Amino acid sequence: MGLDMNYKAEVFVDTENLSREDWLSFRRKGIGGSDAAAIMGMSPFSTKRDLYYDKLGIQPVVDEEEDNWVAKEVVHRLEDLVAEIFSRKTGLKVYPVRKMFRHPLHPFMLADVDFFIDFPDGTKGILWI
Hints:
- A hairpin with a 7-residue loop joins strand 3 (99-102) and strand 4 (110-111).
- The protein is 39% helix and 17% strand.
- It is α+β, with helices and mostly antiparallel strands.
- The strands form 2 sheets. It has a 3-stranded antiparallel β-sheet, with no helix packed on it. A 3-stranded antiparallel β-sheet has the order 2-5-6, covered by helices on one side.
């Protein structure tokens, strides 16, 4: 039995004008790339317990947000710069698409892609920062 790869990701929500609170609310409806890192114990920003509490809307007893807000803010602010450097170094077109995607066969799987890449052969790639 082979994998059916003839599908396209669904646009779950347009994130262009969402408030941070609304964006976080949509993220709680599934598992994304950052969540996968936490699940595997590889995230410097979140533990499995943090993720569990977040998905259920439970506030942690200790506000751990204060411990890593600087790192999160630095990463967020550097995303555009990293994409620009990548584009200059590779000559590839890099651009954001402000949408959250959902897998059509596994709707709990979400993707909030940082940037897309256009390759010379017409294919597309993803640049996650």
